[in-house]
Design goal:
4-stranded mixed β-sheet; 5-stranded mixed β-sheet
Length: about 290
């Protein structure tokens, strides 16, 4: 029985910190003050990717801590199996070591709970800035709307742009450039495949087309209107060499730096008026509402 206390002493700082963290979280959750923001915040660009990245980072930290604690417990169990526990030999140094272990847990636990309130305040400040940016962008955009990270069940659409020229579902792909000295990054596009020089891809084109089709079906169900949705594949940093005629109903491959010709053409008659733009944008925005942090 006494030997079992040795591993428990080893993990007691972690247990103390967990207890303090839970206590502080309940205190913060008991705050009855309400957030003043009334803007329905939408997801920022790449919100889904950021969430996935943070989830991987948290898993890595959890694994590191688990490995450290597991190793420490195993080492102490081995020590306790081969060591004789004689409380009659308990001395001042043993008492000081126990106090040190408890003190470590209290010290770092206090550091953690001290940072919890500023962390929550930072989250609130971020939401406030996002609300301001979102409202200002809407004021300056006129009839143009851009909505990011639209959640569509088990997948997402990176961006949806709604303008008088139409509705565009944009899928972004990142591809590494060729080594320095091999010329500018150029991709050949024939409407069906992307030829990067060293390899070809068709799946991004198929994905963009599939997502645009899904969005058109969603808008028809949500609004009762048939909105044509143009599939767009954005390849930042790449020069697009169109090797075949790309009709308006095909997937449009673009470098986002050169997208105005597609999204805001000057010589094309408007397809959507202001009310239609608003109806379509409202339907899409429902899918892009940001979750409370």
């Amino acid at each position: 029985m006494l030997k079992a206390l040795i591993p428990l002493l080893g993990i007691s700082p972690v247990l103390i910190m967990a207890g303090l963290l839970t206590w502080q979280k309940r205190r913060l959750d008991a705050d009855a003050r309400r957030e003043a923001i009334t803007t329905e915040l939408r997801n920022p660009p790449a919100a889904s990717l950021e969430a996935r990245r943070e989830a991987i980072h948290e898993k890595q930290l959890t694994r590191i801590v688990s490995a450290m604690v597991s190793g420490m417990i195993a080492g102490m169990l081995i020590l306790s199996r081969h060591a004789e526990v004689d409380l009659s030999a308990w001395g001042l140094m043993d008492t000081l070591l126990v106090l040190f272990i408890v003190g470590i847990g209290l010290y770092y636990g206090r550091q953690i709970i001290r940072d919890m309130r500023p962390t929550r305040q930072l989250k609130q400040a971020i939401r406030a800035e996002q609300a301001s940016a979102q409202e200002l962008a809407a004021s300056l955009a006129g009839d143009n709307r851009i909505i990011h990270d639209i959640q569509c069940g088990d997948f997402n659409i990176d961006h949806v742009v709604v303008t008088p020229a139409g509705i565009f579902a944009i899928e972004t792909k990142s591809r590494l450039k060729p080594p320095a000295g091999n010329g500018s990054p150029k991709v050949k596009y024939d409407g069906q495949s992307l030829d990067f020089g060293g390899w070809k891809e068709t799946k991004p084109v198929e994905q963009a087309e599939r997502q645009a089709r899904w969005l058109a079906n969603y808008l028809r169900k949500e609004t009762g209107e048939s909105f044509a949705v143009t599939a767009v594949l954005a390849l930042p940093g790449w020069w697009i060499d169109r090797t075949a005629r790309i009709s308006p109903t095909m997937v449009q491959a673009i470098n986002p730096k050169n997208s105005r010709w597609l999204l805001l053409p000057e010589k094309k008659a408007p397809l959507l008026d202001s009310p239609a733009i608003q109806r379509a944008a409202n339907a899409v925005e429902k899918l892009a509402q940001a979750k409370m942090p």
